[in-house]
Amino acid sequence: MEIRFRFQYLQNSDALFFPEKGRVNDSGIILGKHRIDYDNIADVEALETQLAVMVSKPSYLDDRLIIHITDGVVLALDIRGGKAEELKRHIKQVIAARGTEKKRQSLIEAGKENLFRIENCPVCGAIIDLSELGKSPYTYCNSCNSIFNDRQQVVADGRRYGICPQCERFDRISKYWEFYFTFLIVVYRFSYEAHYLCDACAHSMFKKTLLYNFPFLIGIAPSLLIEIKSIIGRDRHLRQLAKANALAIKGKHIEAATMYEQMQEAYPQHPGILLNEGLALLEVRDEKGALACFQHSLNACKNYVPAQQRIRRLQPS
Questions:
Q1: In 3D, which of 259, 109, 85, 288 has the Cα closest to residue 169?
Q2: DSSP code, position 19
Q3: How far apart are the C-alpha atoms of 153 and 137, rounded to whole Å?
Q4: Which residue stretches of the chain are H helix?
Q5: Reduced to 3 states, what is the DSSP secondary structure of residue 115?
Q6: CATH 2.30.29.30 boundaries in the chain
Q7: The pLDDT of residue 157
Q8: Cβ(73)–Cβ(54) under 8 Å?
Q9: How far, rounded to the nearest angstrom, does the alpha carbon of residue 1 sit from its chain's CA centroid?
């Protein structure tokens, strides 16, 4: 499979005035005349039009490509044509498949082939390596961020649910437009910007934009659209998730915990909800309780990356 795209570098982009041609195929990522092999890609993430490629061995890259690296290991690209998310998922799937095969071979060599275990994501089809991990009620797909149970039933479709880039809580994530309009007698101006946010953060944006736009009637409609979009179309079992997260952010962890427990009646030990419970406890500086929730989340889903990351933050050693 090959995906073609156009891109510009975000670091030292003044060296390139027009988008270059790129493609992703079985050998790696080809950027103009430069190639990054899959063995040299540690991870990849996407947000809106941007694609961040984490390189494991920058010294293996061409010098003309290294000048675009930030923080020593990150190659940031602006992808044209709305293909950033598609590229991310494809690259992650290839990396997962290659890594899984390497793991299988290493276990065979060590005489531990019985510990090799994989699952296929029911959402994106990616291979998920669960080798040497104990069984748990849920499995996390790092390629598309979906969560499914031991019967392959999806409890969080990664195309709609995930970790909010702003508040870092599990919730439904959507694209929202932040719009401001100003009219001063004969002069008017407006500005807008797209954001990927959870429903709770979108509600905060709604209140902020409505307050600003209220004197100018033309700006009210976009604000109302934010609120309407954040309310409709939720998973019926997770309708209270945004409200619970908003309470947790305000430090009302007891009220939030009650709502989280109610949602777990439909999804017992849901790793995302347990993660949010831990974050609610962090808001009131209960690190011990938060750590217990994060560990509970990881026990419910042995490969749940957001819980792993939170545990490492509290236990850096």
A1: 259
A2: P
A3: 11
A4: 63-66, 84-109, 199-213, 220-231, 241-249, 253-263, 271-283, 287-300, 305-314
A5: helix
A6: 3-91
A7: 95
A8: yes
A9: 24
Which two three-digit tokens encode residue 262?
Answer: 């109610």
pLDDT tens digits for range 178-213: 887 776 655 566 677 888 899 999 999 998 888 877
pLDDT tens-place string over residues 67-96: 888 888 899 999 998 899 899 999 999 998
Average pLDDT of the chain is 89
Which portions of the chain are predicted below pLDDT 50?
15
* Burial profile 47-69: b = 16 or more Cβ within 10 angstroms, e = fewer: eebebbbebeeeeebeeebeebb
- Which residues lie below 8 Å from residue 174, measured CB to CB, with a gap of 6+? 160, 196, 197, 199, 202, 229, 230
Residues belonging to the chain = 317
- The Cα-based distances of 252 to 167, 202, 248 in angstroms read 16, 19, 5
What pLDDT does 149 receive?
Answer: 95
Residues 21, 18: Cα–Cα separation, whole Å? 10
The DSSP 8-state label assigned to residue 182 in this structure reads E
Retrieve residue 84's tokens: 């950033």
Highest CATH level, class, for 3-91: mainly beta
Query: Which residue from 219, 224, 223 is spatially nearest to 183, judged by alpha carbons?
Result: 219
